[in-house]
């Protein structure tokens, strides 16, 4: 006897790949945006749809319909990461959530409908909670089975118990999500799910195979697949409270070792290992301290203890603030110490190298840089991260060692007005004042319409001797933030090659010439 479909509540976030690109990469979802996979549109924003962009279009055709379209590459990992807070918000109200795919999650409707005052009240409460907690718009559908609930969610509809077959009967066969099967069914004259469900099950299996038989069951509303509920993530952080404030490094290091072993044992019990460690401390005066440490391999109990000891040494051995070269020491001892595994992987997720651990030289360098950072502060050791922008200075962001290496500006989409390759080898932190003359010795000017007054012939940087310009390209105009007068900036850039073999990037702004970068 076939089990009855489970009454299911499904939450659906429309255009989730587009929203995920906004959450993770900062691409505005209110603009015309399309997410592409294999050069075809898999999702698009509402504004793009208004311009005629549809799923399945090729990139060139979509850009032809919407010239201002922003194209974003499909990234399932990005979609899953961005959807995790939404699932966590749903789990705050209901238990037993199944992630159907990034952008959709389901739960058995019986529990929420009981303690939230009915199915419609539960749907409204969950949608409101997700909007408040995550600032994400969503819709909820309730029906018998996950498949029907997903289709009902697109209209925000609650299908009455037992009414799922009637709800599905009038929907087109494309709702099955199987384009090849839907095309074949239409050529056979089967246009709706009701028509498909009316076919004999044995004939469907013989003609369309196992997948066609499964689709036939879904079309008839006989989806009895049980929900694969998700286990909420365990709280892996460990905390130690101290009645006597820790104001000596040796006492703090002893407490840190015991706490590190507790964290390592807790992670091992879940089959996990730590790759990014958050260290939090609270002093007797209520001061809160926080630092994140990274590691390319797996942090063992000893490695966790070392990093906690280094960080406590850096905090407790800080200066009094007079010299200004070291971080200020806390005004009281530490009464609470907490270790938070910010990044975890399966214990077998990282494998040592063939001749030992993953790069001993890299490990030694990591230890040295982390030690310097623990003593002198997080800003003492920085690394460069490349991102988006129009000028070389905008494309580089310096981040403290161990922090998230995220660009200040998203790399996609292409930035209008960005310099063509190759990129300069040296970007000057402070541009150098310069003067450009023509062959007659008259200063070269650039008009508001980007008209160059004469051919650039000589360049003078500061008090140096003039150097002949043997080649130049430009101008490339940049007109940024014109809508904010206090932040507006308008300039034009040139690439010049000098007689001594030097290649420079010049910019002219408000009538002044500047040397911004040097090419190799």
Automatic annotation (TrEMBL):
InterPro entries (UniProt xref): DNA/RNA_pol_sf, Rev_trsase/Diguanyl_cyclase, SulA_CellDiv_inhibitor, UmuC
Highest taxon listed in the record's lineage: Bacteria
TM spans (from-to): none
Keywords, alphabetical: DNA damage
UmuC domain segment(s): 33-157
Function: Poorly processive, error-prone DNA polymerase involved in untargeted mutagenesis. Copies undamaged DNA at stalled replication forks, which arise in vivo from mismatched or misaligned primer ends. These misaligned primers can be extended by PolIV. Exhibits no 3'-5' exonuclease (proofreading) activity. May be involved in translesional synthesis, in conjunction with the beta clamp from PolIII.
Similarity field: Belongs to the DNA polymerase type-Y family.
The protein's name in its UniProt record: DNA polymerase Y family protein
Organism, scientific name: Micromonospora reichwaldensis
């Amino acid at each position: 006897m076939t089990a009855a479909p489970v009454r299911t509540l499904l939450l659906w976030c429309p255009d989730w790949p587009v929203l995920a690109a906004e959450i993770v990469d900062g691409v505005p979802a209110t603009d015309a945006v399309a997410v592409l996979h294999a050069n075809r549109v898999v999702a698009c924003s509402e504004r793009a749809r208004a311009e005629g962009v549809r799923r399945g279009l090729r990139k060139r055709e979509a850009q032809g319909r919407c010239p201002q379209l922003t194209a974003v590459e499909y990234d399932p990992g990005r979609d899953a990461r961005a959807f995790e807070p939404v699932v966590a918000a749903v789990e705050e109200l209901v238990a037993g959530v199944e992630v159907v795919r990034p952008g959709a999650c389901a739960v058995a409707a019986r529990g929420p409908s009981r303690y939230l005052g009915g199915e419609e009240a539960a749907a409204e409460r969950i949608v409101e909670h997700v909007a408040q907690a995550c600032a994400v718009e969503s819709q909820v559908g309730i029906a018998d089975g996950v498949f029907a609930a997903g289709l009902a969610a697109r209209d925000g509809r609650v299908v009455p118990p037992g009414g799922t077959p009637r709800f599905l009967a009038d929907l087109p066969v494309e709702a099955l999500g199987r384009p090849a099967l839907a095309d074949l069914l239409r050529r056979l004259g089967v246009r709706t799910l009701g028509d498909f469900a009316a076919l004999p099950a044995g004939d469907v299996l013989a003609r369309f195979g196992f997948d066609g038989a499964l689709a036939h069951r879904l079309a008839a509303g006989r989806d009895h697949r049980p929900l694969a509920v998700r286990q909420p993530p365990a709280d892996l952080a460990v905390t130690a409270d101290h009645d006597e404030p820790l104001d000596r490094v040796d006492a703090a290091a002893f407490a840190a070792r015991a706490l590190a072993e507790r964290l390592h044992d807790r992670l091992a019990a879940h089959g996990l290992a730590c790759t990014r460690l958050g260290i939090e401390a609270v002093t007797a005066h209520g001061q809160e301290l926080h630092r994140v440490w990274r590691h390319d391999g797996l942090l063992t109990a000893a490695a966790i203890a070392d990093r906690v000891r280094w960080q406590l040494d850096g905090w407790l051995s800080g200066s009094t603030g007079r010299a200004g070269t070291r971080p200020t020491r806390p005004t009281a001892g530490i009464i609470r110490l907490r270790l938070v595994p910010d990044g975890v992987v399966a214990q077998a997720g990282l494998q040592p190298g063939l001749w030992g651990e993953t790069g001993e030289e890299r490990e030694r360098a990591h230890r040295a840089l982390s030690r310097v950072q623990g003593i002198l502060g997080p800003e003492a050791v920085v690394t460069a991260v490349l991102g988006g922008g129009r000028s070389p200075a905008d494309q580089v962001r310096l981040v403290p060692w161990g922090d998230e290496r995220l660009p200040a500006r998203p790399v996609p989409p292409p930035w209008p007005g960005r310099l063509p390759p190759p990129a300069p080898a040296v970007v000057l932190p402070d541009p150098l004042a310069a003067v450009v003359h023509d062959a007659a010795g008259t200063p070269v000017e650039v008009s508001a319409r980007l008209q160059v007054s004469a051919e650039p012939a000589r360049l003078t940087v500061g008090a140096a001797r003039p150097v002949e310009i043997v080649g130049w390209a430009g101008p490339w105009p940049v007109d940024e933030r014109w809508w904010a007068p206090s932040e507006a900036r308008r300039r034009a850039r040139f690439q010049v090659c000098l007689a001594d073999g030097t290649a420079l990037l010049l910019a002219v702004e408000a009538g002044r010439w500047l040397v911004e970068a040097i090419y190799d």
